[in-house]
Write a structure and sequence with these properties.
Strand order of the largest sheet: 6-5-4-7-15
Distance between the termini: 65 Å
Order of helices and strands: EEHEEEEEHHHEHEEHHEEEHEEH
Number of helices: 9
Largest sheet: 5 strands, mixed
Shape: flat
Helix content: 40-55%
Length: about 325
Amino acid sequence: MGVIFLGNVVPISIADIEKVSYIKLDSFDGRVIPMQPCYLGESNWEAWISTEAGLLPMKIVDVKDACYFSKEPAKATDINIRFISLIMKRAYYKDLVHFENGILEDINNLSASISKINLFHDIWRSDNEKISHRFVTTEMEYIFKVCRSLFDLLQEVIMKIWSRFKYNDVNLNTKKLKPTFSRMVFSDNKLSTAEEIAERFLIPIQLAKFYQRNGVFFSWLRSYRDKISHGGNSIQSLYIMDDGFAISTDTSPFKDLHIWESAELKANGLGSVRSVVSYSILNTLHALEDFSTVIQSIMQLPPDIAPEHEVYIRGENLSILMELHKYCEGDAWIKI
């Protein structure tokens, strides 16, 4: 009888896991088995708890702030992030759990921050003495810092996956990857081409192109993040208007961002704060999703433990992520 580990690192037998309808596991392969509940449809849930007597069924009526397995979202506002699904279903090893949890926590925090920016404007409209520009600029800077740190958390995951699993190309003799995203995409402080990255690390061109695609945005984010760290508050002017917070698109660090080609600008080149923070969050999430697609094409990952289900996420502010595309595409200002 094999022994496996649940999400809280509790040992349990494979015979016990066979009780769980949504988990499919033929043999022990060293993975942690995430025992999040499963939504069965029509307001019904399946959940289990580990006890000294083994796994026992648990009755729940709903979840508030959690990941869960399901064939469809229990609520329309619950989200699916393919990167989170990939790790939990196919690569949930002890040395990856910490980083996956950190990434998910950061995504929740980013959602809370953009919700706070919306809240600050609502408060300002009711009483403009209660909100100052620093309420918003400090929140913006936090968003950019977290987005920057997410790239290094992602790189930690990439390194661990890259060293653990076999490659589809059996003749591949790759070099050790670097521990930070910047050291993968920069050489002599210049962005590398995909061909240069592939040659430097002996990695498949698909993965090298992933680094190149996301390197352009990362370069802007890194430059802005460094200004915050070494130069203090780098947002020189923030404008508070009836229909939203605004920044100048004619000055650094926001000048020449391609987002302004589609976002609605106000007089004097003022752009919405919601547009630029949404741009940052969406590009960061895109890097996670991009990697989840690329890695499946070049590596032999373990079998899916829940092949008929996806992982959905419910958080107190996560539904705001569904609004971000609109904020980038001309619908960032508040209708008054």
